[in-house]
Amino acid sequence: xxxxxxxxxxxxxxxxxxxxxxxxxxxxxxxxxxxxxxxxxxxxxxxxxxxxxxxxxxxxxxxxxxxxxxxxxxxxxxxxxxxxxxxxxxxxxxxxxxxxxxxxxxxxxxxxxxxxxxxxxxxxxxxxxxxxxxxxxxxxxxxxxxxxxxxxxxxxxxxxxxxxxxxxxxxxxxxxxxxxxxxxxxxxxxxxxxxxxxxxxxxxxxxxxxxxxxxxxxxxxxxxxxxxxxxxxxxxxxxxxxxxxxxxxxxxxxxxxxxxxxxxxxxxxxxxxxxxxxxxxxxxxxxxxxxxxxxxxxxxxxxxxxxxxxxxxxxxxxxxxxxxxxxxxxxxxxxxxxxxxxxxxxxxxxxxxxxxxxxxxxxxxxxxxxxxxxxxxxxxxxxxxxxxxxxxxxxxxxxxxxxxxxxxxxxxxxxxxxxxxxxxxxxxxxxxxxxxxxxxxxxxxxxxxxxxxxxxxxxxxxxxxxxxxxxxxxxxxxx
Length: 479
Known about the structure:
This protein is an alpha+beta fold.
């Protein structure tokens, strides 16, 4: 923090004295940034370019003590708090206007105990950080499909991807967490300590505190998997999706296959005449013996007459990064999501109609294939409620020009509303945009009431509300 920033600071409706800011900076191993600092703009910039918020203060934390001091400072000064891990959340809750942003991105340590098959991970680590460290020991943690995503937000909201059917959700592998609660106290939450808090953190998002360390159970996974894409003409999409649905009924837990519909990017293995045309892609990964994967993927790969089939042995770390080029920071993004128990013909028709009306070349719909081990855990065992749904739809509107904001968000909303009658009613909170606050209670289903009780106990003043917020009052009493 430079000397120019040491003046009284207007933070929302609160004036924070320069002496208080200077005292906070002196307590930290990390640093305090204000808008006068050269690093400020970079620190407040996150993945979704639609989010352009300006915190009054950014505390870049190096350890748990920094987080404790930041939380206490925010509480004592009545400041709105935002918490940044990877900064990848679609709603943009990592950054606030006029409050204090707790930036955990410098805290990137990943430590593996190969004998115990455990990992201790700090909240600033990305999925790539975790994958590279664990795979060095032929171990893995089930996470998401974009390696630049932060491990913290992913875990607290759920975490599903290529290994979910084999090993469960990311949060299912959680053994303990160190978390700074709203009163500025660092506690350990586990199956034997603060059990109610541990339950809530597994799916309840950032509502209950700031996690400074995660302890995960790891699983054995070879460095090679059978993975890749099978690309179909969009004209065949209805038949392909119907046969895809049927093939998955007997899929082993090791096999995961997602369906993606969009305009074809200029991929090197696609004939040039297909670039920019609508396609349907079956993206699959077999997380077992590569030889056995050939038989397991045969039914999916025999569907229709694909334009290209590039499924083959792949380094798992490389496959985890395969979609990164399509999800780089700097674009404007808006998502809408549903859980589905089944992929009905009516749902398929709605999806295909939306693809025929794509508003831009980067907009897409993907259908995540879940279930398996993750689906065999009771809904009440963790705060995450969506154990029975077999598919997760993400309507991903993505574009570059602000003038396209209304067109692209309207497209996503229309599809969401059209598909609602066929959806399960729950929702994956990590896919929910900022304008879906009224959907939170329904997203958690029967677990919501218990989440309110935990929130009331650990954060009765709702200090941590920059999230898909569980308010510490019953919904009927909420303003």
